[in-house]
Design a protein that fits this description.
Number of helices: 11
Strand content: 15-25%
Helix content: 40-55%
Number of strands: 12
Structural class: alpha/beta
């Protein structure tokens, strides 16, 4: 049995899981701007230091034992988190989390031994945690002192319009997500595997455009989109799109799929309730755009995301589209304040489209408009990776402009 394949779920397991999925979900709102203004996660290491310019640097070394921040306390304001992994093979990311661990406020992922990276935040006073999943001590205290920093940038009319547009974009995509997932579930309920396979990707793309927003609410993203062994390792917690994907393509059965589908729609409706009252900051938008491109560069290029169905290319494009929407919302502001960065982003976006071009097809694999991803060779995947990494580097500059 392949390492990524969980054992079959028994009917009693499914019944318990369905009951868990039906539990009420306490609605919350983002409101993160009052706690911390997010800047982009970037693989580019910051070199700023506490030199009187207002920037401060926190060093975080990933080890088997943990990720103790140095220093463990800073004054409120702009902070660069420099993250390095010298030899910790089981610890590959560092996160700044809210003190109750419910929100990831900034992170650097995919740092295997020998790599370094970082992220930057405009941090408000309070208690936080530096987290490194997989370490012996996964959470470390981090404190921000002093007075709240100036957030006058938030009142800029061009940025205000961008935030308003982003909120509408998120709400529309969640509504479309629910509608298309329900059609997907209708096919499952009717017993048609072939029809369900055709409708799987059209539902997925709406989630992939807005995934960073769903990730704010902790386990909700895992319940909708969690992959086996990333991060799900308990078969009872393997639900949502990818468990159903596995049933359709690898197992070839609909046994248990209707219950899983009902739970998936329930979780999407919970997300809809949350985004209805959520507020965002320009920095959250910029961070989310960079996260989307990083997601495309990792799980999509590797083929991990859609490992059973091989519909990685349309979900890859959905990540890119979600990031491009943020750029377009920021376009008037960037044109006035950093036209060169905007031009660079536009050029690299076109580079990604050009790299995707050879894999477009009509109607394509399962009517997705693209070829089946398993037919894309390793050297071709590297070319895609190069194009999307170049876009991610350019996008990371946007966070400087809106911080």
């Amino acid at each position: 049995m392949p390492a990524h394949t969980p054992p079959a779920i028994r009917s009693d397991d499914l019944n318990r899981e369905l009951m868990r999925l039906r539990k009420p979900f306490a609605a919350i709102s983002i409101g993160l701007a009052a706690v911390v203004l997010l800047a982009g996660c970037s693989s580019k290491k910051s070199t700023a230091s506490d030199d009187g310019s207002g920037d401060q640097t926190v060093q975080v070394e990933l080890t088997k034992a943990g990720c103790q921040p140095t220093p463990a306390s800073v004054a409120a304001g702009h902070v660069n988190f420099n993250v390095v992994n010298k030899n910790a093979s089981a610890v590959t990311e560092a996160e700044l989390r809210s003190n109750d661990l419910s929100h990831i406020l900034g992170e650097q992922e995919n740092l295997t031994p020998g790599l370094s990276g970082g992220f930057a935040l405009n941090v408000q006073p309070g208690a936080y945690k530096i987290s490194c999943p997989g370490a012996s001590q996964a959470h470390w205290e981090f404190t921000v002192t002093g007075k709240a920093s100036d957030t006058s940038l938030q009142s800029n009319p061009q940025l205000t319009a961008a935030v308003t547009g982003y909120s509408a974009y998120i709400k529309q995509n969640v509504a479309d997500l629910i509608m298309h997932t329900q059609s997907f579930c209708d096919a499952i309920n009717s017993g048609s595997i072939a029809q369900a396979e055709m409708l799987y990707s059209p539902a997925r793309i709406y989630y992939e455009r807005i995934e960073p927003v769903a990730e704010i609410w902790g386990d909700l993203d895992t319940e909708i989109d969690g992959r086996w062994e990333n991060p799900v390792t308990d078969v009872a917690q393997f639900t949502g799109f990818h468990r159903i994907e596995q049933l359709l393509w690898e197992t070839g059965t609909l046994t248990g799929a209707p219950a899983l589908c009902a739970g998936l729609v329930d979780h999407e409706k919970q997300l809809q309730t949350l985004v209805a009252s959520a507020t965002y900051s320009p920095l959250e938008m910029a961070a989310g755009a960079t996260d989307l491109i990083n997601e495309a560069a990792t799980s999509k290029i590797s083929g991990e995301e859609e490992r059973y169905s091989n519909v990685d290319l349309p979900t890859f494009k959905a990540n890119v589209d979600g990031a491009e929407e943020v750029v377009n919302l920021f376009r008037p502001y960037l044109q006035a304040n950093d036209a060169s960065t905007l031009s660079e982003i536009d050029q690299r976006y076109q580079g990604v489209l050009a790299a995707l071009g050879p894999y477009q097809a009509t109607p394509g694999y399962l009517n997705t408009g693209y070829v089946e991803y398993s037919t894309v060779l390793e050297d071709q995947r590297k070319a895609l990776s190069g194009a999307v990494n170049a876009l991610a580097e350019a996008l990371s500059k946007v966070t400087v402009e809106v911080s």
